[in-house]
Design a protein that fits this description.
It is a single chain. This protein has a single domain (3-303), classed as Ribonucleoside hydrolase-like (Inosine-uridine Nucleoside N-ribohydrolase, Chain A), CATH 3.90.245. Helix content is 36%, strand content 19%. The chain has helices at residues 3-8, 30-39, 63-80, 108-117, 135-143, 169-173, 175-183, 204-210, 216-233, 245-249, 292-303; strands spanning 17-23, 45-52, 90-91, 126-130, 151-156, 188-191, 201-203, 239-241, 259-265, 268-269, 275-276, 283-290. It has an 8-stranded mixed beta sheet with strand order 3-2-1-4-5-6-12-9. α5 packs across α7. The protein is globular. The relative contact order is 0.15.
């Protein structure tokens, strides 16, 4: 791939695009919105496959259990959306995080991505939208280094480059994988959490008005989010981040209607949870601003159909 083509592949795509989702869907309540938004944006997004990503928090005892729980949650969302045919194209991912930057974690998801990518090229890339720890994608890039010639990665991970530290959930779970992603030269769009996509929040009244009772999928998303938020914030004027939606929205961002971005030299995720900077590194695209109301209106309108 020429450098000119690599830079072109980080521009907002025109027309309908082929994509895959890599998601830790059971970790939070926002991945479910991102999956649903993708399915309800089929005029623009042709979803080819879905991969379950590992995660580890208080909900699960291991990264493998996190991945398996995410796999089952994906299947649940597909049923609610009436998209059961996608189940055969949903793959289990890594059972652990990467330990070393030159040791991939093999998985059905990584192999499926490599195989699917054979249908694409630098001039016609497959878009990989990743919403969790980047283990599956980084492992695929190590298993087949030519993969970076055929895909563009859109990853929600890390914090703003202006933050004091980089202890964001997706990145800190697999720093080795993040270093592979940022260092290999794959066309890459980054959506940082703190100071950027954290602005994309939804409130209880909005969920009740727009989604509750509208259809099985919308009702599940509303009730699941309200239940989770009221487990710690009942009686307050809460809002809840559903930031994973923004990674999907980048593919729908014609005319910067949902977000703005610019190019920066690829930062280096360090193991002490900070970014290092080398201004001679290759460029990546960095999202710096979310147009919250425009994106929320599009999301809720589509989900309520």
């Amino acid at each position: 791939m020429t450098e000119a083509q690599r830079l072109k592949n980080m521009e907002i795509p025109r027309g309908k695009v082929d994509m895959v989702l890599d998601t830790d869907a059971f970790n939070e309540i926002d991945d479910q919105f991102a999956i649903a938004y993708t399915l309800r944006s089929s005029d623009k997004c042709h979803l080819r496959e879905i991969y379950a990503a590992p995660f580890l928090n208080k909900k699960v005892a291991s990264a493998e259990e996190g991945m398996e729980s995410s796999y089952n949650e994906i299947l649940k969302i597909l049923d609610l959306a009436g998209c059961g045919e996608m189940k055969d194209r949903t793959y289990r991912g890594s059972t652990r995080f990467m330990v070393k930057e030159d040791e991939p974690v093999d998985s059905p998801a990584a192999r499926a991505l490599i195989q699917l990518s054979a249908e694409y090229s630098a001039e016609n890339p497959l878009y990989v939208v990743a919403l969790g720890a980047i283990t599956n994608v980084a492992s695929a890039l190590l298993l087949d280094p030519t993969l970076k010639e055929r895909i563009t990665v859109v990853w929600l991970g890390g914090q703003s480059i202006h933050c004091a530290n980089n202890r964001e959930f997706n990145l800190r779970q697999d720093v080795a994988g993040a270093r592979v992603l940022f260092g290999c030269g794959v066309p890459l769009v980054i959506l940082p959490c703190a100071e950027v996509v954290q602005a994309f929040t939804v409130s209880g009244p909005e969920l009740e008005y727009w989604l509750a009772g509208k259809n099985p999928l919308a009702d599940y998303l509303a009730k699941n989010t309200i239940r989770e938020a009221e487990s710690y914030a009942k009686g307050t004027a809460w809002t809840r981040p559903i930031w994973d939606v923004t990674a999907v929205a980048w593919l729908l961002n014609e005319g910067d209607r949902f977000m703005t971005s610019y190019m920066i030299p690829a930062p280096i995720p360090e193991y002490d949870h900070h970014y290092a900077f080398d201004h001679t590194r290759h460029l990546i695209r960095y999202v710096n601003w979310i147009r919250r109301d425009a994106l929320m209106t599009d999301l809720l309108t589509k989900l309520a159909r």
